[in-house]
Amino acid sequence: MQTNLIIYNDVKEFGGHEVLTLHLIKYLLQEESCKIHFICSARNKKLLISLNILMKEVGRDFNITAISYSSGKLQLLRTFLSIIAILRVRKKIKQIAPGCVLVAQGEISLSTVGILAAKLSGIKVVSYIPMAHSRVKRGDRYFPKLKDRILSFYYSLPSAFITISKSVQQELIGRGALQSIKVVHNGIDIDSYEFVEKADARKKLGLEENEYIIGLVGRIEFNQKQQDLFIKVMAKRKHELQNTKILMVGNGPDEVVLDSLIKNFGMQDYVEILPWHENLSDVYSAIDLIAIPSKFEGLPIVMLEAMLYKLPVIASNVDGMAEILPREWLFDCRNEEEIWETFKRVSNGDNDKCLNSHYELVKKYYSIENFRKSFYDELSSICS
């Protein structure tokens, strides 16, 4: 890729989408002819630190511009009012004169200042987006249909999309996107994980050896992740949860509410919460099963990590989970009885054949090396 490339991301939070974007940059920096310029929010301290660490790691400088603007609540409306921010980013784009702008969007309303600035500069702009669910499907409480009508404008702006699964590709088409939509599956850095003896991992985390442990790993946020629903389902049947514990690993906006919920349901003896770990090797080595009761997802990194550790995964029958997991591991996340029955079936079943198959699948198709190369190839074809 012989070009100047701007990568734009103005979100305040650092998550899996940002991690994968960093992996892409690392790969791009191997190309001496490719000059990288990263524009991000000054409020995303973790991203800025990670960018500087990456620069030292690869031994090659690239330009980092921290801007005061960041995406936030009601961004679908805020973007229309962010004229000064758009013009400032447009000025920066004009100075760099890139061949292409890649905008890493968690969802379509985020980082739209970068997309509009690129469009006004006459530069080809590619959206890297992991989710495209309608606000109706997401269950937004206020004016979801109106929000979807407004968001249809944003879906029309990029020159092309790169997304993470065929199901999200179909969601984009359903949102009215007529542009080229390339699929690049998420990948994990297999070599970075350590496989620890279960007894040792449990001892390190303070867990009992004889318990059956269900893991819920990720941001604690009820509207999407639905940890509250899973706790409710288990609480109704806690008389059947002999030697069973739910291990929740993560942080998020609903942490305080989660504590109250656990107390209200009398689940203090059944649930343990750990803060987010940068390295989850001990967690995956310690648990017996992963649950993903999300309303919508994309292609969860947690699912790929569980597959690497040969853990069964029970999950909502949506998105990337429905693409990869066997049907008998999936449930309708609106049906409490189905969630419980799926847990009982999978936890008591013989899953060895499927677990071994998943392990080989991750190593072959969902490695970080495959992600980097596939993304590079697709981006090169779009920007050439």
Question: Can you describe this structure in just a few lines?
Answer:
The chain is of the alpha/beta class. Helices cover 46% and strands 16% of the residues. It has helices spanning 16-28, 45-58, 75-81, 83-96, 112-120, 135-138, 144-155, 166-174, 198-205, 222-225, 227-236, 255-264, 281-286, 301-308, 319-324, 336-347, 352-365, 368-383, and strands at residues 4-9, 35-41, 63-67, 100-104, 125-128, 160-163, 180-183, 212-217, 244-249, 271-274, 289-292, 313-316, 330-331.
Task: Please tell me about this protein's structure.
The chain has a 7-stranded parallel sheet with strand order 3-2-1-4-5-6-7, with helices on both faces. It has 2 domains: 4-187 and 367-383, 3-Layer(aba) Sandwich (Rossmann fold), CATH 3.40.50; 190-365, Glycogen Phosphorylase B (Rossmann fold). The protein has 18 helices and 13 strands. Strand 6 (160-163), helix 8 (166-174) and strand 7 form a beta-alpha-beta unit. It is α/β, with parallel strands linked by helices and 384 residues long. The protein has helices spanning 16-28, 45-58, 75-81, 83-96, 112-120, 135-138, 144-155, 166-174, 198-205, 222-225, 227-236, 255-264, 281-286, 301-308, 319-324, 336-347, 352-365, 368-383, and strands at 4-9, 35-41, 63-67, 100-104, 125-128, 160-163, 180-183, 212-217, 244-249, 271-274, 289-292, 313-316, 330-331. The protein is 46% helix and 16% strand. The longest helix is centred in the last third of the chain and has 16 residues, at 368-383.
